[in-house]
Records
---
Amino acid sequence: MMQKQQFNEQLFDFLAASPTPFHAVYEMRGRLQEAGYIELEEKSRWHVKAAGRYFIVRNESSIIAWNMPASGELSDEGMRMVGAHTDSPCLKVKPNPETVRQGCLRLGVEVYGGALLNPWFDRDLSLAGRVNYSTESGELRSELINFVQPIAVIPSLAIHLDREANKDRTINPQTDLPPILAQLHGDGKADLRELLKQQLLAKDVADVDQVLDYELCFYDVQKPSYIGLDNEFFASARLDNLLSCFIGLQALIESDTEQGALLVCNDHEEVGSASAVGAQGPMLKQLLERLLPEPEARNRMIANSMMVSVDNAHAVHPNFVDKHDGNHGPRMNGGAVIKLNSNQRYATNSETAAMFRRFAQLEEIPLQSFVVRSDMGCGSTIGPITAAELGVKTIDVGVPQLAMHSIRELAGSEDAVGLTQILRRFYSSESV
């Protein structure tokens, strides 16, 4: 198990290289390949072997990696599963986004997920995502792009022109959020698709003929960094939930286990998970059907399995303590959080919580609990969705954080490495 400093430095590198789900999966693919995992194509016939390590990618935005047990027998041993999601709230570019007003080129955006919008103002923004294009020979291809440099900004309206800004300011996503990219002169025009083509050519993608479509989002170029007098915290974009993706990935790669172990990182959790690559879609179920085509054997495997859904939890905010139940306000650097909700917004039950607590005890890692105030609504995760789709016993856990769904979030520098240690123990457990 790597030390905290080394772990967090690698985490920072991963976060900085992953401005979109496409880039996150690309980074995870590379790390898996370095660790000896073999990529399988879903459209091809598979020949998996006992003790083999494999992964699949769908839509370039969701990924499943797994270890086959040394015995090759999944029905009796089951699969130790960890789940997370690759997407984060953001501003996505519309299909025909270009508008020019007062000589400024702007791009129209659509809010993806439950983004906290105020922090997006006055940030140095860049643009990244996937571009689909045709070649000069007529082939259809795709490529990931990242402008890297700050190319856009959403300036705030000066308080002199909005005297009530600090009292009751609301944000209209249609009119207030289009980022400014350039100042045009005369009758100057700009074509985003042409800009994307030039970006592809700059990457030495030489046979680009026409950009046909894209999935792009703006992101804050500020790098992850430590915060606090003693580096108690770290701040970054997309901690929810790339932090959990990295934790699950490291735990899987580091687990020296002969047991069946699996990591699934789905896209589209922030918008409900109902897609071909979301947790409510068939991706994980179809994988398990391919590994065990016979229904009875597969059902036995699921009965012998367990899922740990990893998604960040709400740490208690020192300025807003009354937003938490008095006995269930987890603190940053206080350990991973078990999330519970009697209305099944989280999938935790006493059996799965007891198992997870035992893994933490064996690693001597502290745990905390989160239950939402009884007079407030509760968010949810991929945990209940996966439990309902597969029928697998499930627990919801996560690292406590502040500023969830902001453009820049905050977490404790101790918690991620601790949760990784627990998950590594879970992956190596002989029975669940």
---
Amino acid sequence: MPLPLTSEQLDAAIAAESFSGVLTIDVGAERTLERCEGFAHRALGVPHTPATRISAASGSKGFTALAIMRLVEEGVLGVDDPVRPILGDDLPLVDGAVTIEHLLTHTSGIGDYLDEDADADIDDYVFSVPLHTLAETEGFLPALEGFPQKFPPGERFAYCNGGYVILALIAERVSGRGFHELVQTEVCDRAGLIGSAFLRSDDLPADAALGYLEETGDRTNVLHLPVRGNGDGGMYLTADDLHRFWNALLDGRIVSPETLVEMTRPRFDVPTEHKRYGMGFWLGRRSSSLILEGYDAGASFRSTHDPETRTTVTVLGNSSEGAWPVIFALADAMDGTTKGKFPDED
């Protein structure tokens, strides 16, 4: 696949918000573009490499959905199962009609502990509980409490972070295994991923990038996000692993082809995002592209895969805004549009 923009245009997109991170394009087994910009650790001058582990924020929701669907394939769960019996006395404001499928497709209508529609800046302090308590799934329960149902389950699409934490909680309770272990064994290991994992932000290995709030300076996101990500985000991924992931997914090594068809069936057109949604995956609005995307304090990410050409375009950024000009500049290659992230784009 030829690069859909000149090197000068790509350089301009990289410079627009001082992109820091890793950009790769892989076509089949061939890497056709690789750019590593900026630093994984600014103060120490540690440069990015294609193997740098960078937080994908909400991009890891696809991994949560796959872990759930592995349990469905094993007969431990059903997509039509109500979640209320599994939650028991916890989270009593979750409607009794909410099912696993509602949570997977963002149609549960439950109140969200991280409301995407709230008028907040990306570097605001939005959590109501101490971040060090948000390391294991059960530890998120106090943060999820007290949010009334917004609309009846199944009525419409409304992106919900809390729903994916509840999915992680459900996965643990029905399997008897920790959520992070489930993702590792049922998704990462099956896909042959080498470096991707849920890491603690206060205990990062040398090959993991710090997440920076701004495009300059050394201030990180460690006081803005859970100390370890969970069902709704925060997994650290590598560009190399992402191409392995997409190929494994399409080759039926994570879930069956039939399950993948169900997960990537367009359920909703989401005009404000210029995309469609399946189960855990965004979908191209006018193409067959599969998309993982994340945006958070210190993280800006999108990986898009074209199943027809086995082309993966990945942009992993370790600052809040730096990756978006690059993502938009490359979007034409996959979906014929530069629209992609912000609902107020022209």
